[in-house]
Specification:
Elements: H1 5-17, H2 23-36, H3 41-49, H4 54-67, H5 73-79, H6 85-96, H7 104-116, H8 122-132, H9 137-146, H10 153-167, H11 173-182, H12 189-199, H13 205-218, H14 224-243, H15 250-259, H16 266-275, H17 281-293, H18 301-317, H19 324-332, H20 334-343
Length: about 350
């Protein structure tokens, strides 16, 4: 893929920020590189092949996982052999997305070897075993059987739990989410919401993002009662991303709050409280102002939660009254802002 000089310079600068001592700067770089997508994969792979520190490597691997490009597999497999357990585990998380597809045999063989290797760090072996748990029972059964007498207690117990879960498996939430992301949405939004909540880290960040985008496209065509069910499922996906500290879908949270003509499911506010940034404050102030105009009681849950989320972002981002965003909100929603800042 040919990358224009201007794009290359932007990617280079953002990749440099992945090693920043500032967590906010790293998060911003991860989010922007994720949006750039496949064009950034090569440069991220180069970083992983360099002598970069663990902080930059972890950020690069998180970005590759969010992008979900097939070319991310090779650098991820290289990272698995790093001596740092957190970096190796992050490499496994990236490789996990390729357990199905053209490169599945390579990934399965590599992760199986890691899970079986008693010389590997315990945490890394457990990460490999957890990733392989995504596979069908018939595929993973020989591995689980081989680990029944493993000398490592934690690995042995994890294998036993996985074997028990596979035997009793009637509902695979991760499979439901993956199908929703890669194939088509199910007909049951409530079932999808449950699957998203249960899937945990067994699905990729990019798959959760695709679920959000697919639901967002579907919502307008649904009847009001059904639409709120789909919106709740979208909110559950936002919570799943927030729990993994991913901001790749903050734009949807921000736009949803800005355009909300009525209260959104509480999941949206929960996600915003965790990962919302200064760009979300205007939408929250707008929704709060609309709540005031609608005559809602200040004890109303929507009203109170909007204020609480606004407060959490202001505190986390260290926003003061002199901040440009505060001055902008002052002009548009003076009454609402006065209340929000007083509560903050």
């Amino acid at each position: 893929m040919v990358i224009k000089a201007s794009s290359a310079a932007q990617i280079e600068a953002l990749v440099g920020d992945l090693g920043s001592a500032s967590a906010a700067r790293r998060e911003a770089a991860i989010a922007r590189l994720t949006i750039i997508g496949a064009r950034a994969v090569g440069r991220l792979g180069t970083l992983l092949d360099s002598d970069a520190g663990s902080v930059a490597r972890l950020a690069a691997l998180r970005t590759l996982e969010a992008i979900g490009d097939p070319h991310a597999l090779h650098p991820a497999l290289g990272a698995i052999d790093r001596p740092e357990a957190d970096v190796a585990s992050a490499g496994i998380s990236v490789a996990r997305a390729f357990l199905r597809g053209p490169q599945s045999e390579i990934v399965v063989d590599r992760l199986t070897a890691i899970a079986l290797d008693p010389a590997r760090i315990e945490r890394v072996r457990l990460s490999a075993l957890q990733a392989l748990a995504d596979l069908k029972h018939s595929t993973i059964a020989p591995l689980l059987d081989a680990l029944r007498n493993d000398p490592n207690d934690a690995v042995r117990r994890a294998a036993a739990r996985s074997a028990a879960a596979k035997r009793d498996e009637t509902f695979d939430p991760a499979a439901v989410v993956r199908r929703a992301a890669d194939e088509e949405l199910p007909d049951d939004p409530t079932g999808l919401q449950r699957a998203v909540a249960l899937a945990g880290e067994r699905v990729g960040l990019s798959q959760l993002l695709r679920v959000i985008e697919r639901i967002r496209e579907r919502e307008p065509s649904e009847e009001p009662g059904r639409r709120i069910e789909w919106t709740s499922a979208r909110g559950a996906a936002h919570v799943a991303l927030a729990r993994r500290n991913s901001r790749i879908a903050v734009y949807d949270l921000r736009e949803s709050i800005e355009s909300a003509s009525s209260p959104l499911p509480v999941e949206f506010l929960a996600a915003l409280s965790t990962i919302g940034d200064t760009s979300c404050l205007e939408g929250l102030a707008s929704a709060y102002a609309q709540s005031l105009r609608s005559g809602r009681s200040r004890r109303d849950w929507w009203h109170q939660h909007l204020a609480a989320v606004f407060h959490s972002i202001v505190k986390r981002e260290r926003v003061t009254r002199r901040h440009a965003i505060v001055k902008k909100m002052q002009k548009r929603w003076p009454e609402a802002l006065a209340e929000l800042l007083h509560k903050a």
